[in-house]
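This week, look over our next protein:
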Amino acid sequence: MIRKLLDKLHRLAYISVLLIIYIFAKLLFKLEVKGKENIPDKTDDLLIVSTHNSYWDPPLIGISFGPRYHIHFIARKGLLTNPLLSLPVKVFSTTIDRDNFGKEDLIKILKAFKRDGLICIFPEGTTSENAPPKSGTIRLAEKTNRKFLPLKIVIRRSPLEFPFFFTPAKLIIGKPINLAELKESSLDSTRRSSNGQTDLDYQELSTRLMEKIYQL
């Protein structure tokens, strides 16, 4: 009973924050969303995988999907030290140690997958340009048997930079991709282990996944 009440309060808080963000976003961005028809009716077997350009990405994803979809983010724990971001990150995200990912981090993520709503992860793990994607995204999809919902975000400049406000921004949602399809599209998704068996090359698959996202 208490758990259901807390879930309802959390859902109400999410919708309230989304409304506030939407009001500010109308001033800050000139946002175009393409591909919403690619979101299937059944979303509990999906994992949103997105490019990551700036701290604006999570709120833009939230308002683009709308209040119908409750999105839970996987974020790096370093954001908890940011006084402006720490509270929303605590409430609407699961934080992990990106640089020293361990068993506890994996357990936290798997618990997040049991929540209602969509899970969103940024495979590159950082807003730095040309950062190689982390292989953990592929491993998560494999463990949870989820398909990828690819998402590309293009922001031309910060809305807080001259000429200020109404920054052109585009969010493109692609068609879901399952892991089997990703393997087939990769030329080198397997490798030989020391015992002679064939293993998945998670890093190669992660790179291929991001290539597909950037092609949207």
